[in-house]
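Severity: low
Component: inverse-folding endpoint
Summary: output formatting inconsistent between runs
Steps to reproduce: submit the following structure tokens with default settings.
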């Protein structure tokens, strides 16, 4: 399976500079992100555009998972938070979004406790299993297991939330 990559620098600048950074790549059946905050609205817009581009290139034909590796800070402006929520909901409606999403914080990440609590309900409402991990290997195993389960089941299971 081909691997695709995109980064913040591949997205044209908006009216204002994006605060934060990201890289997105595919690894088999998993869409991987590395993000470094804090973030502003322009960053969220660039992330959404990059996600649309990479999924259009990747064109997964079956269920997939996602892993986000967080670095430094997860803090966002109120406008960025609202745009992130709307972008995730739209992505899940318009694409075959991830059935399982793992957030990985191998090191302390400023604001992660607040952000993960805020988004748990959004992920559950969109039928996306969500896990918060410190170990990237455990996160990958968890995502792979949920993707396999989703493919084996005709009906999606109730979403779950874990923290490890």
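Observed output (run 2 of 3):
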């Amino acid at each position: 399976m081909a691997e695709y990559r995109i980064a913040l620098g591949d997205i044209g600048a908006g009216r204002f500079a994006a605060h934060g950074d990201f890289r997105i790549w595919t690894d088999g059946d998993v869409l991987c992100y590395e993000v470094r905050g804090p973030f502003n609205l322009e960053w969220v817009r660039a992330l959404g555009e990059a996600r649309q581009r990479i999924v259009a290139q990747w064109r997964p034909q079956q269920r997939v998972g996602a892993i986000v590796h967080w670095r430094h800070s997860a803090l966002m402006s109120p406008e960025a938070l609202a745009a992130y929520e709307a972008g995730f909901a739209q992505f899940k409606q318009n694409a075959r979004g991830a059935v399982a999403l793992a957030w990985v914080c191998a090191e302390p990440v400023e604001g992660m406790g607040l952000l993960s609590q805020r988004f748990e309900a959004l992920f559950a409402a969109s039928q996306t299993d969500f896990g918060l991990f410190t170990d990237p290997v455990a996160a990958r195993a968890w995502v792979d297991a949920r993707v396999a389960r989703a493919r084996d089941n005709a009906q999606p299971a109730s979403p779950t939330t874990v923290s490890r």
